[in-house]
Amino acid sequence: MTKPRILTIANWNFEANGKGDLHTRHIAHRKLASLGANLVFRQEMWGADNDGRQVMQELERHLGMRGWLGERACTAIFADHNFQVLRQWSAPSLYVLPPTALTMRYTPAGPDAAPFVAVSYHLNYASPTNRLIEAEWLTTWADKRWTTPQGGTAVLPCISGGDANSYPHADVEGAPALPVLEDIQDRPHRLHRSYLGPDGRRLMDTRPDAALRTAGLEDVARHRALAGDLKAVARTVDRCDTHGPDARIDRVYVTPELLPAVRDVDVIEVPLDLSDHHMARVKLEADVLADILRAVFAGAA
Fold first, then answer.
1. CA Rg value for the chain
2. Total structural domains in the chain?
């Protein structure tokens, strides 16, 4: 039996892009390159727009990919030769950390297949109110239309990866548990990660995840865990005395039609002295993805 061809997506918030330390950055880039990813979502790209985008060029060389840097060097997307970028979207001004959003074509699917939208996001750290608004606007990239070869229009599939700075809503059993507010030692962080409920008590913030799922975006890790693969819902940040227990705040979402292509999800742990976030990895079956993208236009009016 022929082994299916696999496309790998990596999502990583590399802390402060190495904090200006060249050695740390090179270690991180080699670690990321070792995953052999075809598509990479990055957050905290601080400084990548300085000196003629030197850091972007450096990372492109390490990964063997082309990169697109979002506004104010907050986020970025990197893609290999399998992808062609058709459009880069501007982010609404309400974002504290603007996402990078691209309309991309998966070229092996052929010229008559639908493109898709890819988004690298980093929701607000300090304000649960602004974070919810940002998540709501994130759903607009799952509602982009494209003209089909027959002259009709179709809504494009969407893949979004990033740092949600909040928790999954009603996560599966076996995933990291929601923190208890009073167990978070850092008092400002209690505010940052909770919101005021209708009865006046503060609740841990799961509203961005609930908003995205209401709009039809599916957390691929949760999807795989419901099929019995609990490694998919491993922590993406480690417990610490100030911020509370292990948590799964870095998540990749796809629109439902893409779920059949999701073959595997896992988390690649990195040492704390490299970053305060681990890498989320998603593997897609390439031929299934191509068939899905061809079907989008085939079924359009």
1. 19
2. 1
Per-residue pLDDT of the chain (301 residues; tens, 9 = 90+): 567 799 999 999 999 999 999 999 999 999 999 999 999 999 999 999 999 999 999 999 999 999 999 999 999 999 999 999 999 999 999 999 999 999 999 999 999 999 999 999 999 999 999 999 999 999 999 999 999 988 899 999 999 999 999 999 999 999 999 999 999 999 999 999 999 999 999 999 999 999 999 999 999 999 999 999 999 999 999 998 888 899 999 999 999 999 999 999 999 999 999 999 999 999 999 999 999 999 999 877 5
Q: Residue 125's domain is classified under what CATH number? A: 3.60.10.10
Helix (H, G, I), strand (E, B) or coil at 204: strand
C-alpha to C-alpha distances, 212 to 6, 139, 234, 261, nearest whole angstrom: 26, 6, 20, 20
Question: Per the domain annotation, does 1 fall within a domain?
Answer: no
Two tokens, residue 218: 């599916």
3-state SS, residue 265: strand
Task: Assess if residue 43 is contained within a domain.
Answer: yes
CA–CA separation, 119 and 127 (whole Å): 21
Per-position b or e across 180-202, b if 16+ CB within 10 A of its CB: ebeebeeeebbbbbbbeeeeeee
d(CA 196, CA 129): 10
* Residue from 197, 181, 177, 198 nearest 189 by CA: 181
Distance CA(123)–CA(211), nearest Å, equals 13
Q: Are 178 and 167 in contact (CB under 8 A)?
A: yes
Residue 127 belongs to domain spanning? 6-298
Q: Which of 141, 110, 88, 68 is nearest to 286 (CA)?
A: 110
pTM for the whole thing?
Answer: 0.97
Residue 158, domain member (yes or no)? yes
Any domain includes 89 = yes
Q: Tokens 């059993």 sit at which residue?
A: 173
How many C-beta neighbours within 10 Å does residue 259 have?
Answer: 13
